[in-house]
Design a protein that fits this description.
The complex is a heterodimer.
Chain A: H1 25-43, E1 52-54, E2 56-57, H2 59-79
Helix pairs in contact in A: 1-2
Chain B: E1 2-8, E2 26-30, E3 33-39, E4 45-46, H1 49-63, E5 68-70, E6 75-77, H2 80-101, E7 104-112, H3 124-146, E8 155-159, E9 167-175, H4 179-192, E10 198-204
The chains are: A mainly alpha, B alpha+beta.
Chain lengths: 85, 215
């Protein structure tokens, strides 16, 4: 990586404006394990029929947040760019 | 009320971990199949990573002692009698599913898609068409990369690519003895495809292989 001459303000209208460094590998592995966990526990597994309550709160929020995270990790690896929030 | 983790043919608990909110595990058995649960006066299960890992920890422990059908996170019943009724009603289905996953674990593989930088931003419709064609090519490429893994698995489950994500994700039901050879194959695929980022996590409970065909 070449050093930059200073802090560059990203153009606010560009969706690819936020440049990030790829996170350390250990962190990335942990994030991937977490999203693999979410994929399985929230979307897989036996669903019991009948007299039950699925008492899971705020799933969508967490899930979407983590998907964005994994997307941004993959994107960061390729091009140093995160997806728009 | 009770939080239910799994259905298993391992009837007795040994040195078991605690469950969600440190709830001690209990089991109720019906004709050779047990439901494993913890009792709680009140129960909230937000999808907090700590609670998710607590659920998986229980499933993981049970898998050391027998075949396991993990339940979806957040399954709550009114009391153990309600669980007994489920075991009574669905026992045959559970027995069939247990026989399918016996001796196996689930491994998760992700392939980071290689979409190119949208350097030249053409008109909107053209751009979207190009991106769609690109995405299809990428998925085909991921398919070819993953092909050598499938013969090592007893079953394979492909997750649809989610909007806004850049990875293809596939689950494999793998006999325990094949986990190491499988991981070695993933490492070999990564070495052969340095332009892709390939991850493999597990062993997980067989979450992707318990729907009995049709969910």
């Amino acid at each position: 990586m070449s050093p930059r001459p200073g802090r560059i303000s990203p153009a606010p209208e560009s969706p690819h404006a936020h440049r990030v460094s790829p996170p350390p590998s250990a962190v990335r592995q942990k994030d991937i394990a977490l999203i693999d966990l979410l994929d399985r526990l929230l979307d897989g597994g036996v669903v019991l029929a009948g007299d039950i309550t699925l008492a899971v709160a705020d799933v969508d929020l967490v899930y979407v947040g983590l998907r964005a995270l994994v997307s941004s990790v993959a994107a960061a690896e390729r091009q140093g760019v995160t997806l728009p929030q | 009320m009770i939080y239910v983790y799994a259905i298993t043919d391992a009837i007795e608990l040994h040195d078991e971990p605690s469950g969600v909110h440190d709830g001690p595990l209990q089991a109720i058995e019906h004709e050779g199949i047990a439901g494993v649960f913890s009792s709680h006066d009140q129960l909230e299960v937000p999808s907090d990573p700590e609670l998710l890992w607590a659920h998986e920890r229980v499933v993981d422990h049970l898998m050391e002692h027998g075949a396991v059908l993990p339940l979806r996170f957040g399954t709550v019943l009114s009391d153990p009698e309600a669980l007994r009724a489920v075991l009574d009603k669905d026992g045959a289905r559970f027995a069939l599913l247990l026989s399918r996953v016996r001796g196996c674990v689930e491994l998760a593989v992700r392939v980071g898609l290689t979409s190119s930088e949208p350097g030249v931003v053409a008109g909107g419709a053209d751009y979207m068409r190009e991106r769609l064609a690109e995405r299809e090519q990428e998925e085909d490429a991921a398919d070819r990369v993953l092909a050598p893994l499938r013969p090592l698995a007893r079953a394979t489950a492909r997750r649809p690519v989610q909007a806004g994500t850049t990875t293809v994700s596939e689950s494999y039901l793998v006999p325990r003895a094949t986990v190491e050879p499988f991981a070695a194959e993933v490492r070999a695929l990564q070495a052969q495809n340095p332009g892709l980022s390939i991850s493999c996590t597990g062993p997980w409970g067989p979450y992707s292989f318990v729907d009995g065909g049709g969910r």
